[in-house]
């Protein structure tokens, strides 16, 4: 038994010796590491001034970098700002007319010229032009393209209602109407003058008071609308109908009233202003006009696509877009345009006059061929 016990204790003793040696070796390594750490710390403390100098140099280099960056930005920012101000392709929808013309170096607003020129080529015979609502998606796309001063003539030549809708939208979204807030009362007072000659002369005087930019553009638009009515047998857009659907986009009060007021006296007064301007465009704005000022538009063949449209909002509009489409109109909706047309057709002058709105027959006015002859006459002939 004693010999067996002795044989078992020998391996255990050897294992304990091995563990003891490992512990001693580990303790030695720890001591070495501790000494090394102490040495490094003493060295760091000894060279602390050098490290502080390195850090100070880093901060100085960074400060110099930022100073040079600031100077560079200050030199380049005016150039960047000047390039942005001189950039031609600025949005035109919803921007003041004078600002757009000054930036683009034009006399006629780009959306006006682009839409009018395309309509002259492909939309003059389209029934219900300016009254029939276009596809909402097509209108949105065309407006965005006009804002970029880029128009695919071939694409939109097949969609004259979208072109007409874009022109109406541009006029409606101007911060100030083309016929100006300042002259609004004068326009209204002129339309209320009972004598025909004095009424037309008052309208003529108001035209002459328009700022140059507004005068050039209203002359351009009215001349186009007069040309449009020459095709009224095909497009059904008489001067009266055109005045009903476009008049409220050319003139509106600075503080708009409620919709009921707009649909009665106020809207009809505006129609009474726009209609004679269209009927006698050559007397109010004598001389020929070149519509394609820039010469950038083609001449696609006219195709009648009226059957593809409805006088109500497009069926591809979502509910929210329909509400926005109706509310965004200033001040009448498409449905109101149609309502006004039916109102005028059914009730005629009698009901309009019963509301206190004077409507005159100006067909007797002779057209003037030159501005010299026009200005020579102080009033329309009797």
Shape: elongated
The Rg value, from CA coordinates, equals: 40 Å
Number of structural units classed as domains: 2
Task: Just give the CATH class of the largest domain.
Answer: Mainly Alpha
How many helices does DSSP assign? 17
Helix-strand string: HHHHHHHHHHHHHHHHH
Measured as a percent range, the helix fraction is 55-70%
- According to CATH, what is the topology of the largest domain? Phosphatidylinositol 3-kinase, Chain A
Q: In CATH terms, what is the architecture of the largest domain?
A: Orthogonal Bundle
Number of strands: 0
How far is the first residue's CA from the last residue's CA?
A: 154 Å
Task: Describe the main β-sheet briefly.
Answer: none
Low-confidence spans: 298-319, 322-379
Region (Disordered): 1-21, 307-330
Keywords: GTPase activation, Phosphoprotein
GO molecular function: GTPase activator activity
Domain Rho-GAP: 95-285
Q: Characteristics of this structure?
A:
382 residues, mainly alpha, Phosphatidylinositol 3-kinase, Chain A, 2 domains, 17 helices, 66% helix, 0% strand, RhoGAP_dom, AH/BAR_dom_sf
What does this entry look like structurally?
This protein is mainly α. The chain folds into two domains: 2-82; 101-376, Phosphatidylinositol 3-kinase, Chain A (Orthogonal Bundle), CATH 1.10.555.10. It has helices spanning 2-46, 48-85, 97-104, 110-122, 136-147, 153-156, 160-173, 184-191, 196-208, 212-229, 232-235, 239-250, 259-279, 281-284, 319-328, 334-354, 371-376. The longest helix is centred in the N-terminal third of the chain and has 45 residues, at 2-46. Residues 298-319 and 322-379 have low confidence and may be disordered.
């Amino acid at each position: 038994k004693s010999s067996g016990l002795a044989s078992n204790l020998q391996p255990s003793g050897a294992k304990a010796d091995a563990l003891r040696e490992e512990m001693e070796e580990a303790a030695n390594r720890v001591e070495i590491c501790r000494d090394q750490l102490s040495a490094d710390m003493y060295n760091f403390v000894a060279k602390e001034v050098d490290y502080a100098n390195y850090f100070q140099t880093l901060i100085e280099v960074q400060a110099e970098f930022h100073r040079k960056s600031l100077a560079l930005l200050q030199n380049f920012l005016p150039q960047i700002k000047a390039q942005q101000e001189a950039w031609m392709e600025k949005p035109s929808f919803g921007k003041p007319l004078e600002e757009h013309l000054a930036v683009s170096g034009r006399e006629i607003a780009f959306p006006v010229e682009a839409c009018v020129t395309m309509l002259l080529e492909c939309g003059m015979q389209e029934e219900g032009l300016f009254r029939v609502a276009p596809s909402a998606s097509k209108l949105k796309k065309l407006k965005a393209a006009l804002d970029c001063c880029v128009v695919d003539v071939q694409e939109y030549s097949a969609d004259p209602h979208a072109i007409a809708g874009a022109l109406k939208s541009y006029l409606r979204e101007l911060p100030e109407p083309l016929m100006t807030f300042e002259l609004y009362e004068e326009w209204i007072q002129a339309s209320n003058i009972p004598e025909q000659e004095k009424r037309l002369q008052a309208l003529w005087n108001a035209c002459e008071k328009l700022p140059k930019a507004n005068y050039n553009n209203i002359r351009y638009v009215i001349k186009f609308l007069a040309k449009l009515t020459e095709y009224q047998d095909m497009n059904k857009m008489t001067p009266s109908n055109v005045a009903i659907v476009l008049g409220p986009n050319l003139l509106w009060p600075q503080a708009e009233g409620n919709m009921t007021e707009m649909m009665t006296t106020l809207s009809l007064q505006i129609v009474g202003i726009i209609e004679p301007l269209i009927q006698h465009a050559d007397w109010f704005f004598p001389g020929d006009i070149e519509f394609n000022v820039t010469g950038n538009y083609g001449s696609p063949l006219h195709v009648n696509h009226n059957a593809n449209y409805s006088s109500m909002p497009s069926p591809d509009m979502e509910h929210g877009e329909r509400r926005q489409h109706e509310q965004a109109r200033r001040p009448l909706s498409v449905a109101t345009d149609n309502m006004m047309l039916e109102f005028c057709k059914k009730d005629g002058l009698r009901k309009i006059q019963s509301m206190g709105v004077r409507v005159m027959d100006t067909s007797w006015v002779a057209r003037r061929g030159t501005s010299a002859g026009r200005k020579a006459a102080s009033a329309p002939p009797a």
